[in-house]
């Protein structure tokens, strides 16, 4: 991994949709949430979700529907033109930001960008290219096609993490103890971002961490909010913690 995205300190703290201490009154994926996360540490990575407006503009939004202020019914972001975003205030007074604006507003921050809409791929790439942000973004998606389509439009390579199918292939390789199979399964990305467990099945294991590190890949675990669990995972060797509580993660990791 030669991209300078990876030069920051480890274990990495990835602030899940920024930092929202009071979700009942505040909005994730907003500039206020990003500000709060970066106040914890300038090294925090902002994890954000990307949807697309009707005209294909990439916006920081987890769900395809959102509720504007004023008690209006939820509306679909795919029905909204980007030009209308500044007039659509959210209940906490924030507006839905574009990825382009976020990369400009925070010119030194690193972003973990989860592409949730195929329509957003072109604008995600354009925003990264225009901001010359190749060394401070990590692209991910549950869809390998969305991730590859976006990276193909970039002027320079960026850091990436695995799709759902690629994660499954890596887990299979680790389960059968095949380092060669693992290297082949992980050849197209730099990191696996995974939950510690899927139901009763343990996903993150010392063996998986060893196989990933032997192949030159990182392991980031989501979404972890208990300091004791963070410390245990870091002791296991994971490279990053995706969390709603970057403040607690910072203290837990400092003390580990």
UniProtKB/TrEMBL annotation:
Report which superkingdom the organism of origin falls in: Bacteria
Domain named GP-PDE: residues: 11-253
Q: Cite the entry's keywords alphabetically.
A: Hydrolase
- Please name the InterPro entries in this protein's record: GP_PDE_dom (IPR030395), PLC-like_Pdiesterase_TIM-brl (IPR017946)
Gene Ontology biological process: lipid metabolic process
Q: Name one GO molecular function term.
A: glycerophosphodiester phosphodiesterase activity
E.C. code: 3.1.4.46
What's this protein's name? Glycerophosphoryl diester phosphodiesterase
Q: Which organism is it from?
A: Lysinibacter cavernae
């Amino acid at each position: 991994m030669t991209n300078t995205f990876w030069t920051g300190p480890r274990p990495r703290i990835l602030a899940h949709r920024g930092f929202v201490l009071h979700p009942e009154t505040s909005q994730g994926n907003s500039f206020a949430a990003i500000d709060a996360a970066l106040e914890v540490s300038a090294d925090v990575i902002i994890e954000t979700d990307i949807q697309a407006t009707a005209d294909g503009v990439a916006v920081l939004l987890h769900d395809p529907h959102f509720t504007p202020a004023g008690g209006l019914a939820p509306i679909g972001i795919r029905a909204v033109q980007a030009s209308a975003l500044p007039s659509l205030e959210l209940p906490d007074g924030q507006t839905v930001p574009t990825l382009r604006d976020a990369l400009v507003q925070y010119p030194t921050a690193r972003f973990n960008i989860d592409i949730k809409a195929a329509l957003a791929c072109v604008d995600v790439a354009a925003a990264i290219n225009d901001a010359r942000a190749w060394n401070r973004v990590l692209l991910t998606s549950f869809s390998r096609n969305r991730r590859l389509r976006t990276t193909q439009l970039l002027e320079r390579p960026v850091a990436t993490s695995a799709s759902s199918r690629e994660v499954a292939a890596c887990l299979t390789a680790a389960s059968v103890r095949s380092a060669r199979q693992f290297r082949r399964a992980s050849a197209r990305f730099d990191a696996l971002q995974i939950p510690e467990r899927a139901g009763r099945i343990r996903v993150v294991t010392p063996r998986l961490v060893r196989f990933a590190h032997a192949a030159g890949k990182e392991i980031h675990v989501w979404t972890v909010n208990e300091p004791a669990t963070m410390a245990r995972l870091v002791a296991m060797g994971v490279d990053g913690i995706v969390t709603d509580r970057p403040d607690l993660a910072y203290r837990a990791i400092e003390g580990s």
